[in-house]
Amino acid sequence: MSATPTLLFLEGALRMKETRNLPVTVPTTLQELEELVARYPNLPAEAIVKQDLLRLGMAFDAASLGGASFKEKDYFIFTFDHVPLGEQDEQIRFRIPEEIRLRGGHFELAPTVVSVRVNPGSPYRVKATERGPAVFLGDVELGEVEFPPVPAFYAHRTSAGKSPGEIAPVIEWGYLIYLTVFRNCQYFGKEEECAFCDINHNYRQQKAQGRPYTGVKSLEEILEVLAWIDQEDTTAQVYTITGGSVVKDLRGKKETDFYFDYARGIEEKFPGRWMGKIVTQAWEPDELVRFRDAGIRIYHPNYEVWDERLFDLLCPGKARFVGRETWMRRIVQAAEIFGPSCVIPNFVGGVELSKPYGFSTIDEAIRSTREGLDFFMSHGVVPRFTTWCPEPFTTLTTIAPQEHPPLEYFCELLSVWKATFEKYSLPVPPGYGEPGPGRAVFSVSAFMDVVGYEGRASQRD
Ligand code: SF4
User: Fold this and answer.
1) pLDDT tens, 362-404?
2) Which among 76, 240, 245, 279 is the best mutation to test ligand 1's pocket, defined by most ligand atoms within 8 Å of the CB?
3) Could you tell me which of 382, 364, 390, 375 has the C-alpha nearest to residue 422?
4) Which CATH class, in words, describes the domain spanning 5-19+157-423?
């Protein structure tokens, strides 16, 4: 089914009434953070704090936003917020930064880049201090905070009057140009949409707030912005082409043709200027060959969740239209085309614990996910993960009361990801910048923060 504006409106109106299953935020205490940092000497403290900031989101005092200008959150594909846009305080709505970079504080953190997820109920609050903004947990400062600079090319306007951040926003502290060329998904409604995904609900909320939010971006307007980035920017190194699934056709093109035109158009105009990635469904090898030949280097056919039963329940569209077995086969075959380390399928960390279908214990969740990591990494493929954010209006938050996965789960997940990665002696995933604490810019999970970390002496040794 194609998500027409009328359908989006009707479904949105229904779901607006069904959003009260959002998790109650159970605050982390400083003691819990200290205990986990002591219990996991294999993980940098930066990674543990980062995962908790992603897990529980952040609250902002309006005064903390009042200093120098900074790059605001562009809502590049999902909301990644814990509360609806319409319910956010007007003083902060659309005024918060894309990311923060915190350093110092109680754990003497190296600079740590974290994506911002708005949660007024979060125990983590960004406040104004005499030295500038800082993140606090209760009365304890966890670090001074920088907000990302506004890229110079954001000063332009396209010939249609659009902001560059609307067409080709950058994230990861400017490292990644994020091209969501189709801002809806034709997997539509509870029977098809991935149960954790708010791409269609984000689109609807942006429109309801009166934001310009282009549903299908034209190649021409993307090239217009990329020309400014090419001339004026030295920070961006990578671009991602992505968007929702196309079930039948879009603008008269089947899914692979629709996305291919962007890859070809960008690489013809700017051959090899940035490293090209695509984040799409899992496609057959003959389709992938032409993307590689056009210049795409990295392929992300996201499998979302490893467990077979959960894949079918949480990804009903992918299960019905492609099927899990086919999806996994295509991931492995893609490694022959792009090279194993250039196939980086994502999974949604923590969604294995969601209600009502998920595992009931951390051990079960980790056992399942470890099996998937071992399967892929034994083939040289390196899955990465993002951090599940129970956004309003998603299927999961409308069908059952949710809880945030415990921070201990994310410590276990990082540990098993790191151990499996090291067991197979895999290379640093390309297209993510420098790894390790103090250097990683990937902002929606801490997987790059743990790469190469040699650990510290356990406080219990
Ligand atoms: S395929 Fe699933 S995760 Fe991807 S955009 Fe569609 S609903 Fe979201």
Assistant:
1) 999 999 999 999 999 999 999 999 999 999 999 999 999 999 9
2) 245
3) 382
4) alpha beta
